[in-house]
Amino acid sequence: MLFRRRKPETLQERVRLWLWPRRSWRRSLGYFKKRVLRLKATPHAIAAGFSAGVFASFSPLLGGHIVMALAIAYCLSGNMAAAVLGTALANPLTFPMIWAGTYELGRLITGGVPVASPKGIGEALASMDVDAIWKPYLEPMLIGSVIIGIVAAVIAYGILYSAVKTYQAGRGKTRLDGR
What we know:
With 179 residues, the chain is an all-alpha fold. It has helices spanning 11-19, 25-37, 43-57, 65-75, 80-86, 95-110, 119-126, 130-177. It has one domain (15-167). The protein has 8 helices and no strands. Helix 3 (43-57) runs antiparallel to helix 8.
């Protein structure tokens, strides 16, 4: 191949790059921001799609975030690419905070008692017993995720709508100027 590495990356190098980018987090996040702003759609479509992805990323149902984001974005007439990019909020660095927040809020709303030991979920998952997981863990997390997800999605929509509108207006202005 033309652009293949001479020396393939080792597993250790790939894991390090997955956890910490080559350049910096600031540069990576800046690239991510430009990627979202440069999508070709209306400000509403981009903001609605991205906020659908943000909402879906708070769900405790791993593996379903992208499918859920695409379905919500379709219902809101949002941009599908923005929806997929919005699910990037849920990543291995943010999962502990998201899960703890959704669990605690859901537990407070349902009036549930905190689970005494984390060993119980391991045993329940090993035995594939859904009933043992549902009431103490999944139900509070699902209830909490809906509430926190809606708040985060509304905030993301407001911020992104104004950012995309400003970016597109500035971009149109420079095109008219001939730059």
